[in-house]
Each structure stands twice: as C-alpha cells, then as structure tokens.
Hints:
It is built from 8 helices and 5 strands. By secondary structure, it is an alpha/beta fold. The protein has one domain: Rossmann fold. The radius of gyration is 17 Å and the shape is globular.
Amino acid sequence: MHIAIAGNIGSGKTSLTRLLSKHYGWEAHFEDVETNPYLNNFYEDMRRWSFNLQIYFLNSRFRQIVDIRKREKTVIQDRTIYEDAYIFAPNLHAMGLMPSRDFENYTSLFELMNSFLRPPDLLIYLKASVPKLVAQIQKRGREYENTIRIDYLTKLNDRYKQWIESYDIGNLLIIDVDQINFAENPADLGKIINKIDAELHGLF
C-alpha cells in the first residue's frame, strides 16, 4: 500500500512519517530537503528560483511514486506530488513569484505525469493553524525557513483547505494538529494510530 502525509510547512509531516514508519514497520520516503540544491536560494529570492524549485520537487516526487509502486511493501510518503501542483506552484503564480509562462510549462508537465499516476491508498492530512505552523517552524530552527512570511503560510493554508475539501481520488483522514502533540505525547499518537487502523481495515 501507499500511505501519504500531506500538510503545510511545519505541520509535522516528517515527524509523523517517522513515528508511523516505526510503529507499523512501513518503509518511509521523505521529502528531499537537506540535499535540495534550490531551497536556500528560493527563500532568498522566491521569484528568481520558484520555477527551478518546483520542477525539482515535481521530478523528485514523481520518481518517488514510480519507486513506491514497484515495491511489494507498504510505503509511507512525506508530502505528495499533488501539493506541489495544486498548492505551492499555483500559490507562487498567484503571488507574482512565478511568471505565467513558467507556470503554464509546469502545469503542462504535471498533467502529463498525472496521467501515469495512481493516488495514495490513504491520504493523511495534517490540518494546522498559522500560529501552530509558525511555532513548529521556529522550534525546529531551520535557518532557511527564518524568512518565511506569515502571509505566505496563510495563503498556503487557504489552498490546502480548498484542495482537501474537493479531494475525491482516494481515502482521506484529517488530523487537527492544533488539538494534539503526537511528537511528544504517546497518548496523542495512539489516537492517530487508532484512526489509521480504522481506515486501513476498510482498505483490505
């Protein structure tokens, strides 16, 4: 099976991916952050590097999915290709940080890739308010994230809301992370695991 975790920057995707991978014995596929050659440049000059960054993520995510579908074991993926295409790239375009020519090129490439894709068997969406996102971003202390603006996170959250409300290509589980602390509270993690178990029983 293919389980995927979606959510805004700082929502806790990577932490939950690690915890669920350990609990279930699933193979974890993480977002390429540490070795991404464009990320630092992007946060320094979003308009200059937005297209490069989004193409890099699109390529990386597509390769991940191809690899996941070849495997015979259950894989849990940190962030989906749909978030790149339906949230991050359109948001950059709307904010004037990705020229229309680049955005149209990007969209055309995604549509071609999407024709070969199968959606995750279960999508877990981590819903979080902007103050929660900011607190968690500050807590993890990545230097390149210090310049992320509140309005940028807010616009992303709005797009996540629209996307999740219309998500109809597979099973969906929404977790409100404002109300729990699964990274530090085993009881909160247990609540999530119970919800996942209920969803997984419906997949078999």
